[in-house]
Description:
The complex is a heterodimer. Chain A is an all-beta fold. Helix content of chain A is 0%, strand content 48%. Chain A is globular. Chain B is an all-beta fold. The model of chain B has no long low-confidence stretch (mean pLDDT 94). At the A-B interface, β3 and β4 of A face β4, β5, β9 and β10 of B.
Amino acid sequence: xxxxxxxxxxxxxxxxxxxxxxxxxxxxxxxxxxxxxxxxxxxxxxxxxxxxxxxxxxxxxxxxxxxxxxxxxxxxxxxxxxxxxxxxxxxxxxxxxxxxxxxxxxxxx
Amino acid sequence: xxxxxxxxxxxxxxxxxxxxxxxxxxxxxxxxxxxxxxxxxxxxxxxxxxxxxxxxxxxxxxxxxxxxxxxxxxxxxxxxxxxxxxxxxxxxxxxxxxxxxxxxxxxxxxx
Lengths: 109, 111
């Protein structure tokens, strides 16, 4: 199983782009990069996933390096409601997710 | 759609008691999952199911049982509750195996 490394915590100013890094240097060819977040006490929320191409949806963008050993989740215009723990997970499709400690992102007014 | 619903929201059990945590989804998803989250920690998978009648163990299955008789429901049974099972329990479902949709959680205390 590919392991991921994320910073423990990050801060970002409201209205700015939040860039959350994730290292996954042992990723296999069939493993996807998933991002979820958990706002205090709530169930985790799916954000985005990708295999090797960059992806964008209404919530965020996912940038995966060409060698697939790292990725960055971008929240383009962070709001106070984006304060949460963000989890980067690397797994094959449909396989059980393994949640690590994640990055605690704080958006400051 | 109600999405993923879980009952009860809160429960206090005495050591040795048993209970069933209910989970239901109305999205016709084949995949369903049970996780637990201890304070300050990430989620750990207890059991999962890829369809009605099919279940498999996750990382931390000891002390729990599941069944999946219908697509909609995936109850989690705790037998002989222990203080170590004090946690928040989340149920999730998925149609594709990519994104998982989580319920609001059940907060369980065993004393």
